[in-house]
Amino acid sequence: MEKEKGYYARLILWLATALLIGFLLGKKIVIVKANNTENTTNSVVEVSVTPTPTIEPLPTLTQDQKTIEDDIRSVFGKDTDKALTLLRGTSSKSCAENRGLDPTATNKNDDTLKTTDYGLFMINSHWQGVSNVKFLLDPAINIRMAYRIFVDSGYSFKMWSCGKALNI
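^ that's the sequence the OP posted. Answer follows.
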């Protein structure tokens, strides 16, 4: 009985080591166990190990982007993560209003009024009644306008298409 316990402990340790190595290398592990009898039969256990997907690193921010992000943090406070998710999306393939945090970004919409979105938070000049777009291209003003729209919308980004798509 003691011999069996030692055997099984070594077997478990060996299996765990083999699985860990397979996991780290992303390889399929084939384990063959031979019975110790005269009529030796082998049993094969095949284990496929799928490597953990890598998380895409965020791009390195320029000094201007860091300053903009700091301003967003100071204005949005506890809702900063929502604001940055709206801008950058949740992955490189998700909806994002302004992934590069470009304060001079513009987007001509394909709506019936042919409106344009401006600045960091892509604020629409028509719907916000802004006739001088220079204000919307100023990141400090744009961030504060976005915050006012966010608050007036019940602390929601539902007024932005990506806010709807991301449900934030």
